[in-house]
């Protein structure tokens, strides 16, 4: 869930910068609610994946006996059990549902006012989510490239490496408008 705060922040920035939207109590409450809902969504998928892993582990002898592709079985079982866990697997549908849930929640808590179609506001949230998802790998690549030019060797997994990575990652997020 390390990306949830960044996505939530992008949502709050984009909503605050939208001319037909007013955040009645500022960006922070919107960011907090969005982050909580994003994390809840991620937790549901993790719970689903953990259950699928358990099922595979329970049946490993049969899987090996028939020489089945575990990866393919994982996805088949995950797809079959997704509804039971409240997980939408199609990412476009998932982001759309999440955007709607975030909008409903911040509206119900009187954190947002708008003078346009609700769908237009939901689309601002959707584009924030999608924009971050499309950008984060590029951002990571940029950060890793910068780190490769450090004079001293940074060892992945060390505290120093993690601190420098996080600092550069946040600088790149700020440069791209995901943080302010």
Describe what you observe in this structure.
The protein is mainly alpha-helical. It has one domain (4-133). 74% of the residues lie in helices and 3% in strands. The chain has helices at residues 4-16, 27-58, 60-65, 70-85, 91-108, 118-148, 159-175; strands spanning 21-23, 112-114. A two-stranded antiparallel ribbon has the order 1-2. Helix 1 (4-16) packs antiparallel against helix 2 (27-58). The model has no long low-confidence stretch (mean pLDDT 92).
Q: Identify the strand order in the major beta sheet.
A: 1-2
Radius of gyration, whole Å: 20 Å
Query: Distance N terminus to C terminus?
Result: 20 Å
Total number of strands:
2
Q: What is the succession of H and E elements?
A: HEHHHHEHH
Largest β-sheet summary:
2 strands, antiparallel
Separate helix tally = 7
Number of domains: 1
Mean pLDDT: 92
Please mark out the parts with pLDDT under 50 across 5 or more consecutive residues, or reply none: none
Shape: flat
Helical proportion?
Answer: over 70%
Beta-strand residue percentage: under 5%
Q: Specify the structural class.
A: mainly alpha
Topology record:
Elements: H1 4-16, E1 21-23, H2 27-58, H3 60-65, H4 70-85, H5 91-108, E2 112-114, H6 118-148, H7 159-175
Descriptive key words:
single chain; 180 residues; mainly alpha; two-stranded antiparallel sheet; 3% strand
Summarize the structure.
This protein is mainly α and 180 residues long.
């Amino acid at each position: 869930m390390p990306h949830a705060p960044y996505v939530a922040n992008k949502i709050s920035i984009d909503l605050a910068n939208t001319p037909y939207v007013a955040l009645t109590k500022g960006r922070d409450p919107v960011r907090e609610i969005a982050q909580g809902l994003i994390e809840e969504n991620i937790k549901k998928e993790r719970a689903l994946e953990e259950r699928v892993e358990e099922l595979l582990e329970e049946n490993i002898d049969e899987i090996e006996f028939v020489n089945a592709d575990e990866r393919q079985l994982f996805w088949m079982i995950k797809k079959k059990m997704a509804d039971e866990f409240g997980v939408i697997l199609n990412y476009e549908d998932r982001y759309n549902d999440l955007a709607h849930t975030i909008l409903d929640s911040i509206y119900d808590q009187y954190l947002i006012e708008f003078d346009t179609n609700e769908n237009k506001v939901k689309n601002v949230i959707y584009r924030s989510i999608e924009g971050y998802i499309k950008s984060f790998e590029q951002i990571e690549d940029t950060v890793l490239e910068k780190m490769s030019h450090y004079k001293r060797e940074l060892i992945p997994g060390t505290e120093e490496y993690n601190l420098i990575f996080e600092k550069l990652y946040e600088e790149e997020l700020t440069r791209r408008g995901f943080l302010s």
